[in-house]
Amino acid sequence: MAVDLRAVLLSAFDYKTEKYVIAKNKKVGILYRVIQLSLLGYIIGWVFLTKKGYQETEESIQSSVITKVKGVLLTNSSGTGPRLWGPEDYVIPQQGEDVLFITTNFIETPNQKLGYCAESFKVLDGRCRKNEDCPEGEAVVAGNGVRTGRCLKKDRNSTGTCEIYGWCPIEKSQRLIVPLLGKTENFTIYIKNFIRFPKFGFSKSNVLDTAGDSYLKTCLYDAIAHPYCPIFRLGDIVLRSGHDFQDMALLGGSIGILIEWHCDLDKGYSHCHPRYTFTRLDFNSTANSVSSGYNFRYAHYFKNPAGETHRTLLKVYGIRFDIQVHGRAGKFNIIPTIINIGSGLALMGAGSFFCDMVLLYMMKKSTLYRERKFEKANKYVI
Ligand SMILES: *[C@@H]1O[C@H](CO)[C@@H](O)[C@H](O)[C@H]1NC(C)=O
């Protein structure tokens, strides 16, 4: 059969339009409108209004956190007498990072000197019954020093502990009853947070531009009264995480401070605000009291008038604050708008596809509609 090339070429420029069959069927008609309406509601209400489908979003946020703690207190320990604690003493590290430890309790062992003394009875590897149990020169596993070869016991038949060379006297274990630095509950932490959304070139800080110096000197964060004050009372932070400061201060713990920036940049600069949430991180319902808590040791070294080196050992308990910053910004952009409108229209098409299925295959008069919809062209007739 010869193909008429001219006819084929010309037909490429014909416009073909679809032919519709109107089914006078109220049930399917109502079903179609209901499907259309709910799809329209979904597209407008959820995709566009709730999820802001017309916006381009940026989830990676650049952020810098600077902290400063204020408050002083006086403790009176039996070892070294009165002691004044400033932020430079109880905040570790001192440079104001986004992870900071605040000392709330301590055990002090003053005036330790290198020498010979008995290992603590609590260290299992340090126990002995005879001198042979204490090989000279070997360190006690998880202990305080190096064995000297002597076993020190109260009497012949008891279990003693090895003599060690180390910092003596060794730390005495104590039962802690009250947090010695419990007054830190009323101390404040000033959190400065600078953020930037690089895609939009948008930057902001959590310190209000309108806030003067005097406001920052007197305000205290409160979720309702002062949501934009960047100064927090430590006791409030712990309270908002659902715990009691004094309970937590006894053995220490860890608190997460989350700063969330959800910014709709179409609404303008002043509508972009941080939201703070506080959670206790070292705590869950299955953990027992053995695993919760936070402590570590450090020492101050000094020379006495005779020139001998001494040190003061501190075992400190405290609360560690981890500040994390999350953020998301959105701004109108024509491309996501067109993509979402396009997928919305395609979804509307799904409605007529579903109604076609019902009409053509599930109704009593389906055969009738099928005959109307699918015309069989007979080539002999043509
Ligand atoms: C914190 O301050 C309040 C009011 O100034 C005071 O009543 C409370 O005893 C203080 N808390 C501690 C632990 O010192």
From TrEMBL:
Glycans are attached at N186. Keywords: ATP-binding, Cell membrane, Disulfide bond, Glycoprotein, Ion channel, Ion transport, Ligand-gated ion channel, Membrane, Nucleotide-binding, Receptor, Transmembrane, Transmembrane helix, Transport. Its main location: membrane. GO terms for biological process: calcium ion transmembrane transport; response to ATP. It is found in: Cell membrane; Membrane. Disulfide bonds join C117-C168, C128-C151, C134-C162, C219-C229, C263-C272. Receptor for ATP that acts as a ligand-gated ion channel. This is P2X purinoceptor. GO terms for molecular function: ATP binding; extracellularly ATP-gated monoatomic cation channel activity; purinergic nucleotide receptor activity. ATP binds at K68, V69, K70, T188, N295, F296, R297, K315. The keyword Glycoprotein applies. It catalyses: Ca(2+)(in) = Ca(2+)(out); Na(+)(in) = Na(+)(out). The keyword Cell cycle does not apply. GO terms for cellular component: plasma membrane; postsynapse. Belongs to the P2X receptor family.
